[in-house]
Amino acid sequence: MTVSTSFVDTVAWDDRGLAPAIAQDHRTGRILMVAWMNREALALTAQEQRAVYWSRSRNQLWRKGEESGHVQRVHEVRLDCDNDVIVLQVEQLGGIACHTGRESCFYQVLRDGEWQAVDPVLKNPEEIYR
Amino acid sequence: MTVSTSFVDTVAWDDRGLAPAIAQDHRTGRILMVAWMNREALALTAQEQRAVYWSRSRNQLWRKGEESGHVQRVHEVRLDCDNDVIVLQVEQLGGIACHTGRESCFYQVLRDGEWQAVDPVLKNPEEIYR
Fold first, then answer.
1. Mean pLDDT score, A48-77
2. Best CA proximity match to A64, nearest among A21, A18, A26
3. Model-level pTM greater than 0.90?
4. What percent of chain A has pLDDT over 90?
5. Best label site of A33, B34, B48, B63, fewest CB within 10 Å?
6. What is the pLDDT of residues A108-124, one digit of tens each?
7. Number of CB pairs < 8 Å for A and B?
8. Which chain B residues touch A31 with a CB distance below 8 Å?
9. What is the DSSP secondary structure assignment for residue B125, as one 8-state letter?
10. Which residue spans within chain B are E strands per DSSP?
11. Which H helix or E strand runs over A115?
């Protein structure tokens, strides 16, 4: 699929054709996760108002929640001054964005020179992906 | 400078030795900017409790605010589940993170298929960098 939508052309895609996308909870402001988008992922995200990323490990489009049910409904899409980072304001269905079963992927805090996991696992990953 | 601090070793630095770092306003949750860190930048950020990035364009350490005065005091440092993205909770001195003179670099919103600049310029960049 070739995407020629002009707002997609504005993005300064890197040499792999990717840009990082940050998903932020639209109510609390909590940063939930960072993933990658390519042209098609951004176009589909805008069209479906649902977060669609590009999985670098699987080398394919990744409709967030397709396995887990943890879909991200998109309320707003923003782009930064360099046109190379995207921010999504999302509603996180199920309240879990991380594959570890936590609300946010950013559950490790630097304290006393160590990364400490401070947020609870809300659901066993084995129950999420089965 | 060789940085061997163990929390720095935990980060999954990319093949350039870099990781993206998101600066978020610690009070409002507004995402202010995304920049890059290398090992030394992260170590200095933790040590000085002030955001220090790695400038890819200038190929040198960048103490945010060194020219503009718009220093970021760091309240918390987090790492994601893949250990490859950092989030800083910061107090943005001067209330301006973006080189365009805006609060946040993410001032372009996708509306009606176009990126629209929706946030005000708080200070003329020529007055910031002189």
1. 96
2. A21
3. yes
4. 91
5. B48
6. 999 999 999 999 999 99
7. 104
8. 22, 24, 31, 87
9. H
10. 19-25, 31-37, 52-55, 60-63, 72-79, 86-92, 108-111, 114-117
11. strand A114-117
Per residue in A12-47, is it b (16+ CB within 10 Å) or e — as a string?
ebeeeebbbbbbbbbeeebbbbbbbbbbbbbbbbbe
Q: CB neighbours of B127 closer than 8 A, spacing ≥ 6? A: none
Cross-strand partners of B21 = B35, B86
Give the residue from chain B lying closest to A101, CA to CA: B81
Structure tokens at A82: 């360099």
User: Which H or E run includes A78?
Assistant: strand A72-79
ipTM score of complex: 0.94
* Residue B2, pLDDT score: 57
Alpha-carbon distance A71 to A30, whole Å? 16
CA distance A72 to A22: 12
- Find the residue in A nearest to B84 (Cα): A34
Burial of A94 (0-12, 13-18, 19+ CB in 10 A): middle
Buried b (16+ CB within 10 A) or exposed e, B88-112: bbbebbeebbbbbbbbbbbbbbbee
